[in-house]
């Protein structure tokens, strides 16, 4: 189906057959468990109805190895295998894989550089979150579902300039996202809407990033419905917002079960 692809492995570039790759990789694949997690995190977007066709991409990072595992570009989810996940370094240079990485890899790279706690990044064109991105409107916090996950409104980037678009577009998309967090104390919201495009989310792992993307879509849908019912709805109070966010995420968090040590 894919014919042969150029592959880069440890300094050697050559022609490679995907079928051969799949049958021969198990004994020397890099980061097998991360590949499996990234594959499952990508499939989670399908299970939750967040993607159509080959839309979207999830990656995960091994910080000790300085390597990123990311969905290949344009491969149908239903036939994707762990071997198809592409491994790159933190410069976006492919170090193992028979397929080309997602074209959004450079955006993921910028997010990993900016957020040291990020273990995974998820990008979707899920409909409600994307609708807010297209409207260039941040998603206000209208309720505790939002406050449980995102501290403050989900922000939206400014439009990219023509120079940013014609230049290194995917990297510039990442930099536009990162600039939103230049203000101290804004690192608590692990989701951003890229104006005229769609959301990028992150989390402690690839599966956590997908989870953030699923919750964001739900929150975006609820906010849309809320404004449909009452156009003048105000965000919830700062006190209620902080209460819900900080009981789950603050240093004195008490939501959920105590972790055994
Ligand atoms: Zn996109």
Characterize the structure shown.
The structure is a single chain. 38% of the residues lie in helices and 16% in strands. The protein is globular and about 60 Å long. It has a 7-stranded antiparallel beta sheet, sandwiched between helices. The N terminus is likely disordered. The chain has a single domain, classed as L-fuculose-1-phosphate Aldolase. It is an alpha+beta fold. The relative contact order is 0.14. The chain binds zinc ion. Zinc ion (ZN) binds next to loops.
Biggest β-sheet: count, sense, barrel? Answer: 7 strands, antiparallel
Uncertain stretches of 5 or more adjacent residues: 1-15
Helix count equals 9
**Considering the protein shown, what is the CATH homologous superfamily?**
Class II aldolase/adducin N-terminal domain
Structural class: alpha+beta
């Amino acid at each position: 189906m894919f014919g042969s692809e150029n592959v880069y492995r440890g300094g050697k570039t050559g022609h490679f057959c995907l079928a051969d790759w799949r049958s021969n990789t198990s004994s020397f694949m890099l980061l097998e468990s991360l590949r499996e997690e990234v594959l499952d995190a990508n499939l989670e977007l399908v299970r939750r109805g967040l993607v159509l066709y080959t839309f979207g991409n999830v990656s995960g990072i091994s910080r000790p190895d300085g390597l990123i595992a990311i969905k290949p570009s344009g491969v149908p989810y239903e036939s994707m295998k762990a071997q198809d996940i592409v491994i790159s370094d933190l410069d976006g240079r492919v170090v193992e894989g028979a397929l080309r990485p997602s074209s959004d890899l450079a955006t993921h790279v910028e997010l990993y550089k900016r957020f040291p706690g990020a273990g995974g990044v998820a990008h979707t064109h899920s409909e409600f979150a994307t609708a807010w991105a297209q409207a260039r409107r941040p998603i206000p916090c209208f309720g505790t579902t939002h406050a449980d996950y995102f501290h403050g409104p989900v922000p939206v980037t400014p439009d990219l300039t023509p120079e940013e678009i014609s230049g290194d577009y995917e990297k510039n998309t990442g930099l536009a996202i990162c600039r939103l967090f230049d203000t101290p104390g804004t690192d608590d919201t692990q989701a951003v809407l890229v104006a005229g495009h769609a959301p990028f989310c992150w989390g402690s792992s690839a599966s956590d990033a997908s989870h953030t993307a699923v919750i964001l879509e739900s929150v975006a849908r609820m906010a849309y419905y809320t404004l449909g019912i009452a156009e003048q709805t105000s965000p919830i109070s700062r006190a209620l917002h902080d209460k819900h966010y900080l009981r789950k995420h603050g240093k004195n968090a008490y939501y959920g079960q105590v972790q055994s040590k």
